Amino acid sequence: GSGGTVSQHTANTSALVSAGALHLHFNADSWAEIVGSDGRSIEHGMVASGSDLDYRPGSLSKVTTRNADAVQVLRTGHAVDLAPFRRANIVRFALSSDGSLASAGDR
């Protein structure tokens, strides 16, 4: 696989980064479930390799991804250390209203 394609959104991303904004980048196909602050599922299923997902602060309540090594999370443009939220190959975290990450806990 020759990955020569560049996301067309790259050029203006930096201008859109607001405090607490969440950006997910998928380096490989990965299953993800992303739940909005209203409790509705925004993404549920496979996300293609090379995908970039951007969310406003306060718009999400919970994120779960499998294939943890393939997912990069940035908050306000800075890479997030996912180790505290990772168990085996699954990353799971909750988001507070200001966009900060917290342990989602296991119900």
Describe the fold and architecture.
It is built from 1 helix and 10 strands. The chain has one helix spanning 13-16; strands at residues 22-26, 30-36, 41-47, 52-55, 60-66, 71-75, 78-79, 86-87, 90-95, 101-103.
Structural class: mainly beta
Q: Treating each run of at least 4 consecutive H or I residues as one helix, how many helices?
A: 1
Average pLDDT reading: 86
Q: Number of DSSP strands? A: 10
Query: What is the gyration radius calculated from CA atoms?
Result: 13 Å
Strand content: 35-45%
User: Helicity range of the residues?
Assistant: under 10%
- Cα separation of the termini: 39 Å
Largest beta-sheet characterization: 6 strands, antiparallel
What spatial form do the alpha-carbon principal axes imply? globular
Q: Which helices and strands appear, and what pairs or packs with what?
A:
Blueprint lengths: L12 H4 L5 E5 L3 E7 L4 E7 L4 E4 L4 E7 L4 E5 L2 E2 L6 E2 L2 E6 L5 E3 L4
Antiparallel strand pairs: 1-4, 1-6, 2-3, 2-5, 5-9, 6-7, 8-9, 9-10
At a glance:
4% of the residues lie in helices and 45% in strands.
Structural descriptors:
single chain, 4% helix, 10 strands, 1 helix, four-stranded antiparallel β-sheet, mainly beta, 107 residues
